[in-house]
Design goal:
Blueprint (H helix, E strand, L loop, with lengths): L2 E2 L5 E7 L5 E6 L4 E6 L2 E3 L5 E2 L6 E2 L4 E6 L2 E3 L11 E2 L3 E5 L15 E4 L5 E5 L2 E5 L1 H17 L1 H12 L5 E6 L8 E4 L4 E6 H4 L16 H22 L9 H18 L6 E6 L5 E6 L4 E5 L5 E4 L8
Helix pairs in contact: 1-2, 2-4, 4-5
């Protein structure tokens, strides 16, 4: 088992960009302040490192040890720039879930995605996007896992269930994607549009206690994709030809409502559908209230149980 990495531990970086100045590498500068290893905060996936070029980021860690809801980083783990951590705390060793080995329980890894993106793998969850978006996405998961037992349990399931993997691609302002787009084939893919998700609040307000939030959208997208993978891998192709979308969507609404209750929201989401306008998506709640998003103008209207707009 490799030693644990911490703030101040060094990494090497092979990049030369812009040339001919090599990046060389540098120390880890961000970690989890609530977990101290050898008198220094422990390092995790998405934590940053000093580099001569742009700052580097840890891309690989142990899926068997989560620190602040992120995989723990260790000596030898890879960074976004393709470098490795070269110093660790030898008195604290961190292994892998399931023992590793050929065909065994593997750890989180980093890989190359499309130009300008990185791919971070944590067990059964793979995330691809720009370094900034991946870091923001992982921070969002950590924040929501602290807020909600539903999100915490879902994230744990995604990381540990390598038999039903979920692949998330982070996009912005993408046609035909509003908040998230489900693509189920047993190795589930979901596109999440960060710009769209910012239309939703981080938390419901006093005037709009029923509001759908960013964290609720995250739970829906991830639960829907994972349940679709379970159904596809257990039953084969959906007889309806719909890639198990309807069943997965309903399952995700149940998960959303569990999340809403975790956040103290009394109402349940009953369904979401297109309309009344050609660019609208409407969320309906069991207390009669509704929320209408215009995906063209990005405006939001909250209605009470009588259909009257709430300022």
């Amino acid at each position: 088992m490799p030693p644990a990495a911490r703030i101040s531990d060094m990494h090497t970086c092979p990049l030369v960009n812009p040339g001919p100045v090599p990046h060389v590498g540098g120390p880890i500068v961000k970690g989890e302040p609530t977990v101290i290893v050898g008198f220094m905060p422990a390092a995790r996936v998405t934590d940053t490192l000093v580099c001569v070029g742009p700052p580097d980021m840890i891309a690989k860690g142990s899926t068997g040890v989560m620190i602040g809801y992120m995989p723990a980083a260790r000596l030898g783990d890879m960074t976004v720039h393709g470098g490795v951590i070269v110093v660790g705390m030898p008195q604290v060793m961190i292994g892998e879930m399931g023992g590793g080995g050929a065909g065994g329980g593997g750890g989180g890894g980093g890989a190359a995605g499309p130009p300008g993106t990185i791919t971070v793998q944590m067990g059964g969850l793979t995330v691809t996007g720009t370094p900034a978006d991946v870091a923001q996405f992982m921070q969002m998961i950590a924040t929501e896992a602290r807020r909600s037992g539903t999100m915490n349990n879902l994230y744990t399931t995604l990381v540990t269930d390598t038999a039903n993997p979920v692949n998330v691609t982070l996009v912005r302002n993408t046609p035909n994607v509003w908040v998230d787009a489900y693509d189920g084939n047993g190795n589930q893919r979901v596109n999440m549009d960060y710009f769209d998700n910012t239309e939703f609040p981080d938390s419901p307000s006093a005037n709009h206690p029923d509001a759908v939030t960013q964290g609720e959208n995250l739970v829906h997208a991830l639960d829907e994709a994972h349940h679709g993978a379970e159904l596809q891998n257990a039953n084969g192709n959906d007889p309806s030809g719909n890639n198990w979308y309807n069943e997965s969507h309903d399952h995700a609404i149940d998960a959303e409502n569990d999340y809403r209750h975790d956040r103290g929201q009394a109402s349940n989401l009953t369904d979401s559908n297109g309309g009344p306008g050609p660019n609208d998506v409407t969320f309906n709640f069991d207390n009669g209230a509704s929320e209408v998003h215009d995906t063209n103008t990005h405006s939001v209207t909250h209605n009470d149980s009588s259909g009257n707009p709430i300022p």
